[in-house]
Amino acid sequence: MKKIINDPKRVVDESVAGFALAHADLVRIETDPIFVVRADAPVAGKVGLVSGGGSGHEPLHAGYVGHGMLDAAVPGAVFTSPTPDPILAATKAVDGGAGVLHIVKNYTGDVLNFETAADLAAADGIEVRAVVTNDDVAVKDSLYTAGRRGVAGTVLVEKIAGASAQRGDTLDEVAGIAERVNANARSMGMALTPCTVPHAGEPSFTLADDEYELGIGIHGEPGRERLPLEPADAIVDRMLAPILEDLPFSSGDRVLLFVNGMGGTPQVELYIAYRRAAEALAEHGIEVARSLVGNYITSLEMQGFSLTLLKLDDEMVELWDAPVQTPALRWGR
Amino acid sequence: MKKIINDPKRVVDESVAGFALAHADLVRIETDPIFVVRADAPVAGKVGLVSGGGSGHEPLHAGYVGHGMLDAAVPGAVFTSPTPDPILAATKAVDGGAGVLHIVKNYTGDVLNFETAADLAAADGIEVRAVVTNDDVAVKDSLYTAGRRGVAGTVLVEKIAGASAQRGDTLDEVAGIAERVNANARSMGMALTPCTVPHAGEPSFTLADDEYELGIGIHGEPGRERLPLEPADAIVDRMLAPILEDLPFSSGDRVLLFVNGMGGTPQVELYIAYRRAAEALAEHGIEVARSLVGNYITSLEMQGFSLTLLKLDDEMVELWDAPVQTPALRWGR
Q1: What ipTM score was computed for the predicted complex, to two decimals?
Q2: In this predicted model, what pLDDT tens digit does every residue of B108-147 receive, in sequence order?
Q3: Is residue B223 situated within a structural domain?
Q4: Given an 8 Å threshold on Cβ–Cβ distance, is A229 in contact with B2?
Q5: Which of residues 165-184 of B touch A (CB under 8 A)?
Q6: Which of A72, B70, B72, B317 could covalently link to B37 via disulfide, CB atoms 3.0 to 4.6 Å apart?
Q7: A248 prior amide bond cis, ω within 30
């Protein structure tokens, strides 16, 4: 295992400490228990947004803490759900009196631990709602999931619901928009290589030199099938077909096209994938109204990418364009 | 070779096409010859900034085209200098009557081809100045360089000189600030793994499973030495010592601390490196006034990182903080 780390057991603590030092203008951290919170939290009268999950997917979630997006992010160990304790502490820390929304990727551990924390917060008089993201069309159930997995669509839910909260919407309204974004987002991933979890020390799976995994999960969980490596355009077409069928997306729709790197993919390759996806959507009469390309939800150093389509309406566009000031997503102020 | 590409010969063309589609609000491309240019270029009365070089270092340089940074970027083939022809065309395209600054990383091919283009532009009546960046303290001369290599400091030169041009400074002033940033920036890189150039098809070098290369170049050129892998903090200390000695940086200085990923490094590792660098600078009495952490100048999928320190003055801080709207760096408007 070749990694720029000190002690595998201290990877998350040291990384979060560095993150907080680098972005002290936007965030602060609590260390016992550990979570990342907006520098100015709690914001009185604003719905608080909390997300979290296993580490190793950075910039998700801590990179999205700040004005117009999340109020707090709770990092678990690498690829391991955070316990209820820090989720509860984060929920209390961002409660500005208007309630708190939990944004939870659909993995069994995350869902259970966020539910427990929500129950404890409710006992303390904080109104909590949860939206569970499940945008991955690759598999019905998975190694760690009953139902579909929550993947890159989560970033879009966090941005758009974050803007809704920032403009002063109520907890019901923010939760409703978060649900609407999740319901209109579909994703599919692929991998060329595995990744190595620091405390495991070995690659999470193996792939032959001429194979890729279609429908991979963000923890390296198996997807739909292993296929011989083929040209980028063929891979994109194979990923896009089930996405388009599923909602379905149809001619005349306006979408946000999100090409996400898994962590180790050169940017030139992401844009080659973007090019074909945009071209294919044009062939279907679907208008790409907004785009996002880069490493936004990763699997450590895995090479691969995911495609996400979000069917947009006017309100989603307005909230997507709204100012955001976080370490990883920043525009418009 | 496992890559998300179609034809190795079309990597740059297809990637730049995808880039232009994804960022049509900020940039457009010309294809014969190929370069990326600000959507609103030329800006009348503003000094134009042109950079470029071999592809494979994305987001450098095309990712920095936009308001407050570059006016054009000229991509060569992967790790290969662009020829004078597209550099000349880009220079003409951004000439708003106030002259054009070329920002050139110190590699023999880049320097020669930018000089040739500058001579041709001058013959057409365009005033051109050049700043050649050479911030890498690792080696005196290198495989592709007489003198020090230009590496991550180039990103800081482009941002700060870009802000100087954007506020209306003259060509002499913009060139002067670019030179000052370069003169006050020092960098050092390291790699855990090589990368594979698409048209070569094989890794650019080999490293044993327990080795890293200290002082690596951004094309995988050899650095200072190969060392047994050691903890992140020890690596950071080993990279920081020659940087601090070289300018020198001393107690009371204010700096920008830039931890740059080489392309395949997980973000958790970059922040672990940032943490130690910030701690070590505090031990030296050096104030970290600004930070940048992420993949800003890469070597395809190489795993590794570089450290850059820029000694700041008040004007540099003001120009660093000024609004910038590019695909890869965006804040404050």
Answers
A1: 0.98
A2: 999 999 999 999 999 999 999 999 999 999 988 877 888 9
A3: yes
A4: yes
A5: none
A6: B72
A7: yes
